[in-house]
Structures are given as structure tokens and as C-alpha cells.
Write a structure and sequence with these properties.
By secondary structure, the chain is an alpha/beta fold. The chain has helices at residues 14-26, 75-81, 83-94, 106-111, 155-167, 169-178, and strands spanning 3-8, 30-35, 41-43, 49-51, 54-55, 66-69, 99-102, 119-120, 134-135, 140-143, 146-149.
């Protein structure tokens, strides 16, 4: 079974983070919520608190198949500044292992130089922070091992793209039908 880690920081966008967790679990994908905030309790940008499965320091991520960064402010800024997450993202990229980011979070990848020569998207108005990327105006963009998405309104499409990447198109289509979702 695929193992996914989603990194939550105080100020994360709740819908972007929890939609991914919910839909991947429905698809039978193991996903762990990881707090980078020093406590298992993480409060989103709209004051909704969740309890992460564990704190960043308490795992080695050797079993990780894919990493997810939700957007939101100031959550994205906290993701950008976390040294351990920086090392993990760079290691994943070097090993050509998949990373997914939505809304403002693709700017973390851009500012770390992980999008050079790749197609990517992000929240409208933040494109200049996708350093080295070819910016694509689409709800979800996949280029090699990087999946990016525009924002809250594309959270289901983003989640389904991750399911498709890990389990195939049929699994994503089955899940979309189960939740009565039809893409635009």
C-alpha cells in the first residue's frame, strides 16, 4: 500500500489539507498528517484545529511514497522555513520521488529550485514565485514527479490526481463516482 505524508503548519488551508486526507483514505491509500508546528495540534488559517497523526521529528519518512504540501497563509511560509522539511523535499526531488503541492504551496517548491524546467501552477497572483517553471493556467498540472494545483476550488481534482498517480485512472474514476463528483 502506498504511504503518503501531508505536512501541516499553523495557518494551513483546511479544505486543501483535509480534502486530500479524506479522499486518499477513501481510496485505500495510507496518509499520515504530520505537524511541523512543534505540537500535534495544528490550527488552520480559518481557526479550525486538527490533531496531526505525529510531529515531524517523530518519523524518518523512509516509507514515504509521496509528500503533500497544502497551501494557506501563513502555513505556506512555515513550510518554506522548516529545515527538516527542506531537506526531505530536496531528497525526494533528487530521488525523483513524487511531491504534490496546492495553492500557495507550489511556491515553496519554486523558491527551493525544484520546479526548474517543469510545468506548474499555483494560486493566481503568485506565479512569479514558481522560479524556473513554465507556468500553466490549469486546475492541476503534473510534470514528471511534481503535481501542482491552483487552490481550494481545485482540492478534489488535486486529490484525484494523486489517487490516479498512485493507484491508476480507474481508481480515481471509481472514487470520483463514489463521491458524486464530476469535473468541469
Amino acid at each position: 500500500m502506498a504511504k503518503v505524508y501531508i505536512f501541516l503548519a499553523d495557518g494551513f488551508e483546511e479544505v486543501e489539507g483535509l480534502t486530500v486526507v479524506d479522499l486518499l483514505r477513501r481510496a485505500g491509500i495510507e496518509i499520515s498528517m504530520v505537524s511541523i508546528s512543534g505540537s500535534k495540534k495544528v490550527t488552520g488559517s480559518h481557526r479550525i484545529s486538527v490533531e496531526a497523526d505525529h510531529q515531524f521529528e517523530n518519523s524518518d519518512y523512509k516509507d514515504a511514497d509521496l509528500l503533500v504540501l497544502p497551501g494557506g497563509m501563513p502555513g505556506t511560509m512555515h513550510l518554506m522555513k522548516h529545515d527538516g522539511l527542506d531537506r526531505l523535499l530536496r531528497d525526494f526531488d533528487a530521488k525523483k520521488k513524487p511531491i504534490a503541492a496546492i495553492c500557495a504551496a507550489p511556491t515553496v517548491l519554486g523558491q527551493k529550485g525544484l520546479l526548474k524546467g517543469r510545468n506548474a501552477t499555483c494560486f493566481t497572483g503568485m506565479e512569479e514565485k514558481l522560479l524556473g517553471a513554465k507556468v500553466v493556467d490549469a486546475p492541476v498540472v503534473m510534470d514528471q514527479t511534481i503535481i501542482t494545483s491552483k487552490g481550494l476550488g481545485t482540492a478534489i481534482d488535486f486529490s484525484l490526481a494523486i489517487v490516479k498517480y498512485l493507484k491508476g485512472e480507474a481508481a480515481a474514476e471509481t472514487l470520483a463516482a463514489q463521491i458524486l463528483y464530476k469535473s468541469n
